[in-house]
Amino acid sequence: MKLKKYGIVAGMSLALVAAGCGTDEEDPGTETGADEESSEESTNYGEELDYTITGIEPGAGIMSAAEEAVEAYELEDWDISASSSAAMTQALGTAYENEEPVIVTGWTPHWKFAAYDLKYLEDPEGIFGEAEDIHTFAREGLEEEKPEAYTVLENFHWTEEDMGEIMMAINEGQNEAEAAAEWVENNQDKVSEWTEGVSSVEDEEIELIFVAWDSEIASTNMIGKVLEDIGYDVTMTPTEAPYMFQAVATGEADAMVAAWLPLTHAHLLDDYEDDMVDLGVNLEGARTGLVVPEYMDIDSIEDLK
């Protein structure tokens, strides 16, 4: 399998400022005659985080939604800092290890929810929408030119737990291709449903393109291994979301299994849906939003005011 090498190098620093707290004065007169003291402590996470939410690649749908949330909730002081999915998880991991506050753009499926105790901030305005589905798209003409691959891609459907196994293996240090191959070997019952009636091929090439998120690295490596096992010479190309859609729509790439709908990639689907074939949902129940560690005393995006 040919995999184009890629790397994401990013740095992220968070400025931390001590938070203030207020204490009520003692009340000398009580019914029991004993002194009572009460304290009320509040944390201004805005000041501690320099009013910065750590995001991912600019142009991603979740970034647009985060910026829309800043406006909808009137968070005039807050900024969404664009970086990359790797830099986002690095910033999250560093903050979590030190029990420091951090707010990131997040999504599930993602290994970070298994590795850390995290929560989504409530979104009363519904800016991030309800649960999403991940779709498979193919270029026009793929069904006629590579019918075996088309059938596998059309049949492909798995669960968040399936994807999570590969993501966790990669996060724990296993090579991406090896983690995907191990999952395929251990889940032949599911794979056989996707490949039922499919014949082997020889000397046929296929290119899969994907946005370089941990979830899509897992899914693309896995389905790439399935296609390789029936004889395809598979190339997998990581890129950013806008080019992923453009490449399939123009026929530069054959297919993708990484389109998040109806929200995250909706703006890109509007531009390219007439030039692609939607092969349907391959994973249900995906979600996006603003994510914080469970230890942070905050529950809603409204609380950032």
UniProtKB/TrEMBL annotation:
Gene3D superfamilies: Dipeptide-binding Protein, Domain 3, Glycine betaine-binding periplasmic protein, domain 2. GO terms for cellular component: ATP-binding cassette (ABC) transporter complex. Residues 23-40 have a biased composition (Acidic residues). The keyword Membrane applies. Residues 21-47 are annotated as: Disordered. It comes from the Bacteria. Residues 44-186, 205-305 form the ABC-type glycine betaine transport system substrate-binding domain. SUPFAM superfamilies: Periplasmic binding protein-like II. It is found in: Cell membrane. InterPro entries: ABC_Gly_betaine_transp_sub-bd. It holds the Pfam family OpuAC. Keywords: Cell membrane, Membrane, Transport. One of its GO terms (molecular function) is amine transmembrane transporter activity. GO terms for biological process: choline transport; glycine betaine transport. The keyword Membrane applies. This is Glycine/betaine ABC transporter. It comes from Alteribacter keqinensis.
